[in-house]
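Appendix B. One record, verbatim.
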Amino acid sequence: MRRVAALVCAVSTLIGCSADQGSVEELCAAWKAVPDAAGLFAGFDPSDAPRALQQLTAGRVVLRELRSAAPPQPRKDLDVEIAYFDALIDGLAELDGSDAEQAARLVDEITAEHPAVAEAAARLVSFSEESCTAP
């Protein structure tokens, strides 16, 4: 569960700094254009499946927009993040939302099935800090 929270925070941070080939300039502009990025995952709680699904779906939309603006390496990392969000959305959508423990277990299982997510998120945060921050 802590890994999920860390990943959600990393993605929130990434989005908050905010085409076929994309460019660094396009990606940085896309990050900066995201309104209230930090608010996308405020209070993320997988045991509240309906709210978690709303947050994840909104986050996936943003990630896809970022992907379309991204150059090749960040695009690969965004693909990893999008696949993770897809799996979380698919998994939580199958639950009826009445069993918080089941939702938490499911999120932990999905997170374990996507071990590259943490490194991808870290690379994206690093990329944004190095490439999108004014000197």
